[in-house]
Amino acid sequence: MNQMNQTATVRQYEAADSLPDEYRELLYKVLKVAADTETSLLFPETDWLKMIIDLAPTPEDRQRIARLYAEELHHGLLFYKIWRDLGVTMTAEDYRSTREIYFAATPIQTWTDVALLNTLTDRVGLYQYRNMGGCSYLPLARIVPKIEKDEIGHTGMGYVHLRAICETPSGKADAQRLLAKWYPVALDMFGRSDSKREEAYLRWGLKKLGNEEMRQAYIREVRPLLEGLGLEVPDEKFNRKFL
Ligand SMILES: [Fe+2]
Ligand SMILES: [Fe+2]
């Protein structure tokens, strides 16, 4: 994408009134995906929250992981608040029926799942928020730095847990086995390489980089982190749902 030419002409918006139709539609989608992702642990079908807390091996881990997910819910509220300014108010029924986050269907059965979830998917979130940093919708641009900072903490906490797990041969074997489940999920979260909306997001200054460009940057960062723990990283095409 010819980013430089585009950012030179991108207009910024301070409020929801008088947004161009296409812009409003794209902003709606960005906010929906973000809010759904952040609050996915409360989806009635998954009810991740209690399960994740109960998997924590020590009282300190229970406390830290509960705090991490309280931050996710706060992120969700920040996105819902901007969404409300667009005239969208979620009802309980919307909450049940309209979310689109397929990764929330990935089963979480062990603390190793939680460590991989935080290491890998919270880092995807970090990439996606960095990609919105300084975006053309100023209410959104203003909340991004705080969320980014939290996501750095989340992925870092996940990595600390994963490193401790990999210190024993059986822990490392578990992590290797479950990496085959979480790595493709994380790569899929960047979205399709041929996304139809991508060009429009860049043109309107809502995002800076395309899906595949971000995915490749993520792989370059995550691969050595995982290999540093003695794990073998699956091929980037392995078990993927969206390419
Ligand atoms: Fe978050
Ligand atoms: Fe997070």
The second-level CATH architecture is: Up-down Bundle
Low-pLDDT residue intervals, each spanning 5 or more residues: 1-5
The helix/strand class is: mainly alpha
CATH topology: Ferritin
Strand content: under 5%
Multimeric organization = single chain
Largest sheet: none
Whole-number total of structural domains: 1
What letter string, H or E per element, gives the SSE order?
HHHHHHHHHH
Q: Can you describe this structure?
A:
This protein has 243 residues and is mainly α. The chain has one domain (18-96, 103-227): Up-down Bundle (Ferritin), CATH 1.20.1260. Helices cover 65% and strands 0% of the residues. The protein is built from ten helices and no strands. The protein has helices spanning 3-9, 21-38, 48-55, 59-85, 92-97, 111-132, 138-165, 169-188, 198-203, 211-227. Helix 6 runs antiparallel to helix 7 (138-165) and helix 6 packs antiparallel against helix 10. The longest helix has 28 residues, at 138-165. The chain is globular, with a radius of gyration of 18 Å. Residues 1-5 have low confidence and may be disordered. Bound molecules: fe (ii) ion (FE2) (2 copies).
Keywords:
0% strand, Ferritin, disordered N terminus, 10 helices, binds fe (ii) ion, mainly alpha, 243 residues
Q: What's the structural blueprint in terms of helices and strands?
A:
Layout lengths: L2 H7 L11 H18 L9 H8 L3 H27 L6 H6 L13 H22 L5 H28 L3 H20 L9 H6 L7 H17 L16
Helix pairs in contact: 2-4, 3-4, 4-7, 6-7, 6-8, 6-10
Bound molecules: fe (ii) ion (2 copies).
Produce a short descriptive summary.
With 243 residues, this protein is an all-alpha fold. The chain has 10 helices and no strands.
